[in-house]
Amino acid sequence: MSRLLPLVAFLLLAGLFGFGIWWNTGHDPHDIASPLIDKPAPAFALPVLDEPSRTVDKTSLLGKPYLLNVFASWCVECVHEHPILMTGVKRLGIPLVGFNYKDEPQAATAWLAEHGNPFDVVVADRDGRAGIDFGVYAAPETFLIDAKGVIRYKRIGPITPDVLENEIRPAIAALAKETP
After folding, report:
1. Under DSSP, is residue 89 helix (H, G, I), strand (E, B) or coil?
2. What residues in the chain have per-residue pLDDT under 70?
3. Buried-most residue among 10, 59, 92, 98 (CB within 10 A)?
4. Residues 5-22: pLDDT tens digits?
């Protein structure tokens, strides 16, 4: 019986591995549900990237919906997403807040100088603590936050033209219908 134990353990592990592959087939890793949807965005107060003596906090952004885009100079996918931020997102008519995540300010500033700055304001979360409160997995991630400070949408991964038209634009339109 003890001779069969390694075989049983191997078959069990192989079965779990196979189940994991089957489970991930056809499931988009960007579709991870956020427990923060329809809940107030976490409180934060972060320095502005190019003006560290000035702070932006959650309350200063209340009053109209905005997109919060998590990015970093070390983020490979952020480079792919950036052209969409520069053109498509700006046409949505709501502010775009850059959330620089776990990055050196000089590196982030240089990255924006090289690729362009689509953001209305950029806050710096150097230690990643505010990102933890938002449930950030990695960059890029994007949140749609309504005028009352409630998270209405979260995207893990880069925004593509398809995501912009089929997910973000309808989410913003839904917010407009809710506002009296």
Report:
1. helix
2. 1-2, 4-34, 179-180
3. 98
4. 666 556 666 656 655 555
The rounded distance, in Å, linking the Cα atoms of 63 and 60 is 8
**CB contact set of 58 (below 8 Å; sequence gap of 6+):** 41, 42, 43, 44, 45, 149
Decide which of 3.30.2310.20, 3.10.310.10, 2.40.30.10, 3.40.30.10 is the CATH code for 30-178: 3.40.30.10
Name the phi and psi angles at 121, rounded to 5.
-155, 150
Contact by Cβ (8 Å): 66, 145: yes
The pTM score is 0.81
